[in-house]
Design brief:
Elements: H1 2-7, H2 18-26, E1 30-36, E2 49-58, E3 61-69, H3 78-92, E4 97-103, H4 109-115, E5 118-128, E6 134-143
Parallel strand pairs: 3-4
Antiparallel strand pairs: 1-2, 2-3, 4-6, 5-6
Length: about 140
Amino acid sequence: MEVMEAAFDPTWGEAWNRRQVSDALIMPTTHAIIIDTAGAIDEAATNETAGFCLSRHTSGEEELLLIGVKPALRGSGLGRKLIERLIRNAQTRDASRIYLEMRANNPAENLYRTIGFQPIGKRPKYYRLSNGERMDAITFGLPI
């Protein structure tokens, strides 16, 4: 939760609360990956937690629900490592595609595109911001 609180700007309302995370992780189709400050993942992670991702698997597809890296560590390759592990894990679950949805001005878009995600859909004015304005959601897909 410490990474969640640091990684997501409250302006956008994207962070999940502890209950949402707990409820998701109870489901056998929800998967978490943790990365530490040295880039070690899951059981090998022994340093301070630097980032995480949550995904959900269903019907041969994986959905990236959330990914977050502490702001001070962004640009260090940790987000890429998390997504690369997500891809490998999804392949072991026989997924053929990974989806994600993001707000239109999300700075992580560059990372997603460099990994190979392509925009496949748009939901106009999908997200409601804290000031009442609306923002488009963009759906990206990655065949794996």
